[in-house]
Design goal:
homodimer; about 180 residues; mainly alpha; Arc Repressor Mutant, subunit A; 2 domains; about 0% strand; elongated; DNA-binding
Chain lengths: ~180, ~180
DNA sequence: GTCTATAATCGGATAGAC
DNA sequence: GTCTATCCGATTATAGAC
């Protein structure tokens, strides 16, 4: 019988949230065990009870990202604006929760402890499959994905453009034109 | 009067090349002063003569990237295939020299010592200006850039697609159609 | 489940010889 | 310009109390 209120997050999740925040603000070098623990309000020893090593902590973060990406992709499939607009909107807004997680993972790219690239590739593949389910032409679907991924990269370096919302509209109408011509 | 043969690289450049290689293979945590120095064939002390600190080393790398990007953008402006094909080809091939440098810099994103994001934003702006000089519609120009940046991101995580060459062709013809309609 | 204390290692940087 | 030797701080991880 737990005494934790239903609304409070378990420490394990709090620790992963702290890792995400630290990765976004200071990169992988800022994500020390001590910093992650104290941001979550526990001691280093407390963290190491939940994740036995830095590698386990990182892997836990990546696993959660993949699970969430799969769920996010499923949601987007039935978005009222359509998959294209939904995907591009999410990827161009840096404080979208799922975008935050991806950006944090990107800042982890290259660390020796875990295979960040594989986890990100898996997440991206969910989104491609989702897009491709609504756009029959695989080349066009890939192009849409690449535009969204371009947004991710620009969010990573914090450089948006005034034309970005117009780009989203243009791509949406491009896809709509194609759907019309194909029928 | 130097005794160095004309073809040998100065140690300073060798050190920056070593940093690039290490960033690509192991991320920022692998790019220790010791590792960079020994890859370049010198000692840690030897490195610190040329770059007085880790911060100076990183900044030297970013400065070189910005200089090279400006030169690369100028070259692409007069490429025989046209700017669009040239930009997309370069960004989709992970072992292109200038792409390697950008990917290495992306793996440095978030480190506290230097402003990687600003340097990358400057490089990307050169390319946008170059693309925009050949495509009058700024929204279309930005879309082309975003597709290329999507390639960069996928190169970062090592996940290409079979459709990528077809995407390049499609975007090129998309731009050609627009140029025709506008005239 | 969480804490403190401590061991062991590593990375950045200085000093000074050659 | 390059080297070795050394210092110092930071970081991961363990041990064991509560």
């Amino acid at each position: 019988m737990s005494t934790r209120p239903a609304h409070a997050q378990p420490t394990r999740e709090l620790l992963l949230d702290s890792l995400e925040t630290l990765l976004l603000s200071g990169g992988s070098s800022a994500a020390t065990l001590e910093a992650v623990a104290s941001t979550a309000g526990v001691s280093k020893g407390g963290l190491l009870y939940h994740f036995g090593s830095k590698e386990a902590l990182y892997q836990g973060f990546l696993d959660r990202m993949v699970v969430r990406s799969r769920a996010e992709a499923a949601q987007i499939l039935d978005a009222p604006q359509g998959v294209v607009a939904a995907y591009l909107d999410a990827s161009s807004v840096a404080d979208d929760p799922s975008t935050r997680t991806v950006l944090a993972a990107l800042r982890l790219a290259g660390v020796p402890e875990v295979d960040v690239e594989a986890a990100l590739a898996e997440s991206f593949s969910f989104w491609y499959e989702t897009i491709a389910r609504r756009i029959d032409d695989p080349v066009l679907a890939r192009m849409v994905q690449l535009v969204g991924d371009g947004f991710y990269l620009h969010a990573l370096i914090g450089s948006g453009s005034d034309h970005d919302t117009a780009v989203v509209e243009r791509v949406v109408s491009l896809v709509a034109d194609w759907q019309r011509d194909a029928s």
